Amino acid sequence: xxxxxxxxxxxxPALRRKxxxxxxxxxxxxxxxxxxxxxETAGLEELERRGAGLEVLSAQGLDLRVRELRVSYRAxxxxxxxxxxxxxxxxxxxxxxxxxxxxxxxxxxxxxxLLAFGSLDLAVxxxxxxxxxxxxxxxxxxxxxxx
Length: 147
Known about the structure:
Blueprint: E1 16-18, H1 34-49, H2 54-59, E2 62-73, E3 82-92, E4 96-105, E5 113-126, H3 137-144
Antiparallel strand pairs: 1-3, 2-5, 3-4, 4-5
């Protein structure tokens, strides 16, 4: 018995991208260091979508600092592949956030291929002095809401 294909969720255009030459090594494979940038881009886009983006944080005197970045690789992305980045807010603490991202290759097969997944553990800090700071309740609530 075959399983039905599980479609990817609809994502904004900013979370779909075509692999460019600059992303790859000499063999046309996306260099491992580019995945960190892709995860960060997707995670920040998710914060923006939920009304808690960097401009909103900055207006409240807050900023984000990366405490930990984790990336697990499953398959290679290659030059001219179309990628879909699927972010999620995995945890919201008083002064921290954890963003998860799955990166898929769109293809002609019945299911997209999971290429990599990872997470960004972010500390919320005072923009002026870098001291840990609590998220205001309104932003914390916006981030905890289901997408």
